[in-house]
Write a structure and sequence with these properties.
The chain has helices at residues 15-28, 60-71, 88-97, 132-137, 142-152, 173-189, and strands spanning 2-7, 33-38, 74-80, 104-106, 113-115, 121-127, 159-165. It is of the alpha/beta class. Helix 1 links the parallel strand 1 and strand 2 (33-38). The N and C termini lie close together (10 Å).
Length: 191
């Protein structure tokens, strides 16, 4: 299996980076091929300046990201939930990479579209400062809905699993270590 790990947290000293490293550690214990994208390492303008009206040339890092997305069988996203969404830099990455012609194509004269990234699976590993149950039942999982249904399902990735970790802000070290071990096991199982 070919796995792409995408880390969307802008701070390299964050717990999200530790989670990504734990997943990678698990991958190295499996037979999977893998690649990693650390969004904060990429050189690109996150602003989709003209929307889809006018094409903006993709920077080399974004062309490489598209190639890695195309290559992967399974894509793992690691990011924090900020204001019910993904970090701005990750949102810019999504806007600039998952373009018409690459990830999907709207049909002429129709409200429907063709999905170009079918056959892939995905996992979202997201962290938050609220309890995961509160995020799910009271806030209705806004970033999960946006990523899973409105982004990944939209481009053809239909099987998406979610690992929501929270609350982090007041968590004890044992809680964080336990989650690192669980995420490492996910990597080892390639899920």
């Amino acid at each position: 299996m070919k796995i792409l790990l995408i880390n969307g947290h802008p701070d390299k000293d964050s717990y999200n980076h530790a989670l990504a490293k734990a997943y990678e550690k698990g991958l190295k214990q499996s037979e999977a091929e893998f690649r990693e994208i650390v969004v904060s390492d990429l050189q690109f303008n996150p602003n989709l300046q003209y929307g889809y009206r006018k094409r903006t040339m993709l920077e080399p890092d974004l062309l490489q990201a598209q190639e890695s997305i195309q290559w992967a069988d399974h894509i793992v996203w690691v990011y924090p939930v900020w204001w019910g969404s993904v970090p701005a830099l990750m949102k810019g990455f999504l806007d600039r990479v998952l373009l018409p012609g690459f990830a999907f194509k709207k049909r002429e004269g129709s409200v429907w579209w063709d999905k170009f990234l079918t056959g892939k699976t995905s996992r979202i590993i997201c962290t938050m400062d609220q309890p995961a149950w509160y995020y799910r039942w009271l806030n209705h999982r806004p970033s999960t809905v946006a990523m899973k249904k409105l982004t990944l399902n939209f481009i053809g990735i239909s099987k998406v699993r979610v690992t929501a970790i929270g609350p982090l802000r007041l968590s004890k070290e044992k809680y964080r270590i336990d989650w690192l071990q669980k995420v490492e096991a996910l990597g080892r199982k390639n899920i």
